[in-house]
Amino acid sequence: MTVETPADTATTRASGPPLLEMRHINVAFGGVHAVRDATIDLHEGEVMGLVGGNGAGKSTLIRTLSGAHRADSGEILIDGKPVAITNPRDAKALNIECIYQTLALADNVDAPANVFLGREVVTWWGTMDDGAMEDATRKVMGRLNPNFTNFTSPVRYLSGGQRQAVAIARAVHFNARIMIMDEPTAALGPAETAQVRDLIRQLKNEGIGIFLISHDIHDVFDLSDRISVMYHGRIVDTVERTKVTPDDVLAMIILGKKPDEASTEELAELQI
Asked: How far apart are the first and last CA of the chain?
């Protein structure tokens, strides 16, 4: 039997059509150009690491995809077809789901109520169908995290990793094809970080395309298939994770240059 290496997987995936393409995206706020001519794509079952320093433009680019900001120019294609995303409802209708660092959970209610927050299931006489929502939540959580058992306590009592699982379950239940994850392991301990990494790998195995925004270079290298680096609003380069080192990526983040464009002196000054 032939064992497929990570590099083989990336090559196979790249040969197919992208699930998503963002082409020549520009976003400005007054005189500040937050995103400049950015082009990026994403394939099914791929984790795309999106990295850059503060103010690099990665959050603005992703918020354009989520419908939180409107691009001044450029186009977005899904399955090769142009789409219009002018608000978050448009994004959700296209099966694009965002999991921001704040998670947007309602702390005073339980996991099922959070999974269906804003999209509650009601009975024919108009009351909440709590049983149906709990059953559906148990099914989706069984796919993602079979060890999750706390379905009745308010989510304020859950650990950070469990809260992430609830937010991810909400996206998966509503058939996310493209998932945006903003700093998913921030402020988590080692055990909870491992749980979230396992969840991301599970989503990847289910064919969901993931944008992973993270300042943690270890997360990026452990989870990503490709890495796209932003600097002052533009994309410096998009590289195969297996073909670069963490130092290469850090140099792009700091210098805004591809590894082969940076001089020996510039790299030496970084002391990486």
From this structure: 40
Cα–Cα distances in Å, from 231 out to 36, 64, 194, 202, 226? 10, 17, 29, 30, 17
What dihedral do alpha carbons 45, 112, 148, 214 form, nearest 10°?
A: 40
CA distances from 145 to 83, 99, 140, 223 (A): 33, 17, 9, 18
d(CA 46, CA 19): 10
**Distance from C-alpha of 45 to C-alpha of 171, rounded to nearest angstrom:** 15
Q: How many CB atoms lie within 10 A of CB 81?
A: 8
- For the chain, what percent of residues have pLDDT higher than 90? 56
Query: What pTM value is reported for the model?
Result: 0.85
DSSP 128: B
| Bridge pairing between strands 47-51 and 226-231 | parallel
Tokens of 80: 């090769």
3-state secondary structure of 235: strand
5-43 tens-digit pLDDT:
444 444 444 456 899 999 999 999 988 899 999 999 999
pLDDT per residue over 9-19, tens digit each? Answer: 444 444 568 99
CA angle 152, 182, 34 (to 5 degrees): 145
